[in-house]
Amino acid sequence: MTTPPTVDVHAHLLLPDVEALVEGLPGLAEAKALDARRNGPAALAVNGPMVRERIPLLIDVTARLAAMDAQGVDVQLVSPSPSHYHYWTDEETAEKLYRLANEATAAHCSAAPGRLRGLGLVPLQHPHLLTAALGHALEQGLAGVEISSHAPGRELSDPAYEPFWTRAEETGALVFLHPFGCTLDERLDRWYLSNTVGQPTENAVALSHLIFSGVLDRHPGLKVIAAHGGGYLPTHIGRSDHAWTTRSDAGAGCAHLPSSYLRHLYFDSLVHDPSVLRELVRVAGPDRVLLGSDFPFDMGTRDPVGALRAARLPEADFDAVRGGNAAALLSLGVTP
């Protein structure tokens, strides 16, 4: 008998050098203004102190490892904070940014190679740079890359992304889908709706584009991990199935019932509700859900294993989600 390590696939890193790179560039002020409009003043007043008090956990490997020990987490898959996407940058800056982010993330993880694996960044706003950016991430020893739910003017179903999906499938790279910002904008600018409603909405929209456009038909070997349990889509997939079966426009792009594609995607466990987590495991399959905490931000959980245990899954499913599935994806060994 073997026991898989406990693996958290949703953990973040701050990269000060990336922010130094874009500081003062044309476009940054406009991007910050959009972020402010989307979140609203009350959320921004909370966000600043929240992030500042967590900076040691976000940049210091020793602090990260101590927190992992306290949580009972053996391995983290570390991805840059989505605030580092900066999809507004021009080509030259975007190339500098992804190289800097990939190299900095790899350096952070190399300080504890047995316990930290990393994901890089790619510039979704410049599709022709994506395969090179993915290749650079893999050359640094990273397991794949993190992307948002869309880029300005482009959904993930955009044909311009086909070479990227092809290369990700060929290399077996992980693609971590983590939204940043919601295009509902000021409608969500109070009560932190920009996150509580916006993030699961963006997840559902992005995954629907991948499903309904046929991206997953053309690239069945893609390893896409959706943050936040895939948002609203897994628990409301019946509406998608109904549309696919009754409307010619809804069923035109993908070959199979939308719900069937959930078993070709991966989802983290960060849904904040045991019953929702049980439903996610039911519809996606226990081999498609991975432990996730959103470490160390306040919208995550400080006890990801405890949150998983609260779902009262069968022991085999619990162990699979706790670490077995991620260990297989990351080719991690197991211990007796």
From TrEMBL:
It comes from the Bacteria. Transmembrane segments: none annotated. InterPro entries: ACMSD, Amidohydro-rel, Metal_Hydrolase. Keywords: Lyase. Residues 7-331 form the Amidohydrolase-related domain. Pfam families: Amidohydro_2. This is Amidohydrolase family protein. It comes from Streptomyces gilvifuscus.
